Each structure stands twice: as structure tokens, then as C-alpha cells.
Amino acid sequence: MGHQPEPSKLSAAPESDDIAFVTNYFNEYCNCYSYAVQDYLAGYISKDIQADFDYLPRPGQTRGRTYQDLWLSPEGMRRAIHEDGIDFAGMKYPKRIPPGHYVICCFLEPGEYHFIRQNRDGSWSSKDGRSPPTRNGADKKPLINPEDYYGGDKRYQFVGYFFVPEGGVRVGIRGYETRRLAALCERTQNPAEKVEKSVLEELVPLSDYGDYTVREMRDIFAKKGIIGHKEMTQLWDNYNARFLRKSKLLKNAGWSRISALKDAYTRPKNARLEKDTSR
């Protein structure tokens, strides 16, 4: 089937143990997209889980787009994924994986989508909304060929394979904020934008610290020890405390992170909300 290259070709792919890693610490903040591209903090805003989940990433949103038009065709979805910095690899599993990249794939149904990633051991896994990551297909059986995830259900269109850089990409709120800050640094003259810029200059480095914390936690997780688990919890608790303390100071200064992002993360009026929140 061409979906199981030599192990040496998968060295940039996520460790399969990241399945447990995500489940233990970041399950509520990841959907199928952020799991596939390893942006485990993509939906993290505060301890308000529902607010976080409302802002889990959709392809193209880091550019400040709504996602209603992305459900119209596989072509639109491929364009949106590309805008997030992820290259299209074709409709067939690639014969060659560029050094420093791994493979994901995507399905599309009107009003819905799903991402699947390949792990370093060659297995395939995905995450359905708040559900834990799994190596199984939609039929709950072990997934061998990702193109068979839905068992031939014609409602789901295969969008294709994509190359993700090693270590993943930012596709959620943090990605949007990083790009927004870069744009403001280039052209900010408006007083209101200057205020937003000053706030983002506080938040973006803090999210960088979050990335560093995740890397530290992954290293500890690899040890698989009880002491390691405690160390991970302490690291995560320290990051949460720092993030929430800074967010509270910013809110007291009159700037709400959630409110500032609503224009970029707006639900289309005719979206099927029940299904939408599952991905």
C-alpha cells in the first residue's frame, strides 16, 4: 500500500508515545488538526475549558479567516492548510518524504473534516475532538491504510497527504497572535493597534515559554517513571500559574484575549455547531 516506509524515513515524525502524552496533559486543548501538527497548546486560553474548546484551530484561521468557505471543496481545504505553512504532498502516499518532515492526511465532508498523522513507528493515529488519541479507524479497528479511515463512506472526500515540518507548526490562537504581532510591528500607527501590539508583545513570548515547557515535558515523559510524572505535573502547573497571572494583569489593564480574537475566530451563522465542536 506504500504507507510504511523504512523507519529511517520517519525520524522526523512524532513519537508514538505522544498519544499518551497528549491524553495525560493536553487532551482538552487539542482537536484532530492540532494533534496532527503537534500544536498541543493550540486551544489554550484559560481554565475555562469550553472557551478554550470554542477556539480550537481550523485550517486557515491563523490568517484571520473564518472557515465556512473551507468546507466547500477539497481544493479549498488544501489551500487553507497551505496558508498555515503545511505543503501539499499529493493524493497518494509520497514516495519520498523530505528530510525534516513527516506525513499527515485529511478528509472532508460538508460541515466536517478530520486529520490523521503518521507516527515514528509507522503507525497512524488521530484525535476526534476531546476524545483521546487513537490508532483505530472510524470502525474502531486498527488503522493500517489512512485512506480507509472511513471504510469507503462516500460522504467523506479524501483531501490528500501533507508534509509537516519536524516538531510541528502553530495553527491555533498562538499562531494567529504571532503573525498578528509581526504585522503590527511592520505598520502600527493607529493608537488602538499600538495597545494591541503592546499586549501581544507580552503574550507571544509567554507562548514561546509554553512551547519550551512542552519540550521539557516530552523529554521527561520519555523516561516513563513515577518521578518523571511528578516533574511533568510541576512543570505544567508552573506554566499555568505564569500564564494565568500574566493574563489576569492584562485583563485588569482592559485587554481581553478572548474578545480580541473573536473577529478572527467567528463561527459562521449556518455552521453545524454540534459537529463543528467535535473536531
How would you portray this structure in words?
The structure is a single chain. The chain has 279 residues and is α+β, with helices and mostly antiparallel strands. The chain folds into two domains: 7-173 and 270-276, no CATH class; 178-261. The protein is 40% helix and 11% strand. It has nine helices and five strands. The protein has a five-stranded antiparallel β-sheet with strand order 1-5-2-3-4. Helix 5 (173-187) packs antiparallel against helix 6 and helix 6 (191-221) runs antiparallel to helix 7 (226-252). The longest helix has 31 residues, at 191-221. The radius of gyration is 19 Å and the shape is globular. The two termini are 27 Å apart.
Features:
279 residues; alpha+beta; 2 domains; 5-stranded antiparallel beta sheet; globular; disordered C terminus
Shape: globular
Return the average pLDDT rounded to an integer: 84
Number of strands: 5
**Poorly predicted runs:** 268-278
State the major sheet.
5 strands, antiparallel
Kindly report how far apart the N and C termini lie: 27 Å
Structurally, the number of domains stands at 2
Number of helix segments?
9
The SS-based structural class is alpha+beta
Work out the strand percent. Answer: 5-15%
User: Order of strands side by side in the largest beta sheet?
Assistant: 1-5-2-3-4
Helix content: 25-40%
